[in-house]
């Protein structure tokens, strides 16, 4: 059957930001295709864990604030210690701060840029050695469009992030 050509049986996928939304959907899709999942989130992804394990796949939950990059290599070391390898990295964790430009603080700027740009680079860098040893390894970074949901709010950093 043609679907067997797309099987990811025996693969291990690291998915950041998989507690809700796109990340949760990608973690579930990868699990349905046969992947075990390493979820890296700022909160415990209870519902995602339940759904992935219901599919008969294993789920390693690692809690971390990816705005702080110093812990990233250790996270991937824990994933490799648990599963022996990493085949797929999905950089999905992201942050949107909807704020008037006059109210946007340096901390807001740093939080958004550190998670949406800096962590993607350093997660990819930390995973590069593990992924590059495998013939069929993949890395995927997710970017979102932003539409204001309330009058007067703006998504200041979206164009800057896309340019970076």
From TrEMBL:
Keywords from UniProt, A to Z, are: Oxidoreductase
Instruction: Kindly indicate where the leader peptide sits in this chain.
Output: none
Which GO molecular function entries does the Swiss-Prot or TrEMBL record give?
2-dehydro-3-deoxy-D-gluconate 5-dehydrogenase activity
**What Pfam families does the entry give?**
adh_short
Reading the lineage from the top rank, the first entry is Bacteria
Membrane-crossing residue ranges in chain numbering: none
What Enzyme Commission number does this protein have?
1.1.1.127
Q: Which family does it belong to?
A: Belongs to the short-chain dehydrogenases/reductases (SDR) family.
Protein name as catalogued: 2-deoxy-D-gluconate 3-dehydrogenase, N-ter
Q: What is the lineage of its organism?
A: Bacteria, Pseudomonadati, Pseudomonadota, Gammaproteobacteria, Enterobacterales
The gene for this chain is kduD_1
